[in-house]
Specification:
Blueprint lengths: L1 E6 L2 E4 L4 E9 L6 E7 L6 E7 L5 E3 L7 E6 L4 E6 L8 E8 L13 E2 L3 E6 L1
Parallel strand pairs: 2-11
Antiparallel strand pairs: 1-3, 3-8, 4-5, 4-9, 5-6, 7-8, 9-10, 9-11
Length: about 120
């Protein structure tokens, strides 16, 4: 079992920044990758970013490239999502999730454990 806890969400004006954190615990040695997803009201959960557990490889959905950065603190088994130049359309509940298999996936069904989510609201 792997436990995930997100934090760092909140209300911010358009153009502002937030840093989300995903704390991992439990069988973290089984983790091979971590993804960030988001879900806006009335919409399906969508992929945002992925980082390999080594921290070497990252991948972003086009809509956040150049604005969001995913990184990992190896010592604390924590992953961050730095979000800059936020837009109202970034408003959603943000979730972190881990994969126990190597390779990138943009699909929710390929992730094995999920956090409870943290709300991000961007006002115009």
């Amino acid at each position: 079992q792997v436990q995930l806890v997100e934090s760092g969400g909140g209300l911010v004006q358009a153009g502002g920044s937030l840093r989300l954190s995903c704390a991992t615990s439990g069988r973290t040695f089984d983790i091979r990758g971590l993804g960030w997803f988001r879900q806006a009201p009335g919409r399906e959960r969508e992929f945002v970013a992925h980082i390999s557990w080594s921290g070497v490889n990252t991948y972003y959905v086009d809509s956040v490239k150049g604005r969001f950065t995913v990184s990992r603190d190896n010592a604390e088994n924590r992953v961050y999502l730095q979000m800059n130049s936020l837009k109202p359309e970034d408003t959603a509940v943000y979730y972190c999730a881990v994969r126990l298999y190597y390779g990138l996936s943009l699909t929710t069904k390929d992730y094995n454990y999920w956090g409870q989510g943290t709300q991000v609201t961007v006002s115009s």
